[in-house]
Amino acid sequence: MLATVFAMAAMHEDMHQRAGQQQQERQRAEEVGTVLRQQKVRGNGTEHEQTDSVS
């Protein structure tokens, strides 16, 4: 019986660790998406400015 309790406690802790890792991965993906969107906006603005200066 005691072994079962320890096994369940260990499994519970593993589940929490995996959930935390998944949350960190989602946060990183959101941060990368934000950076890429900012770069795209800057890139589009830069292209537009370059096109205007060439004309």
From TrEMBL:
* Compositional bias segments (type: Basic and acidic residues): 45-55
Q: Where is this region: Disordered?
A: 13-55
The protein's name in its UniProt record: Uncharacterized protein
Organism, scientific name = Polaromonas eurypsychrophila
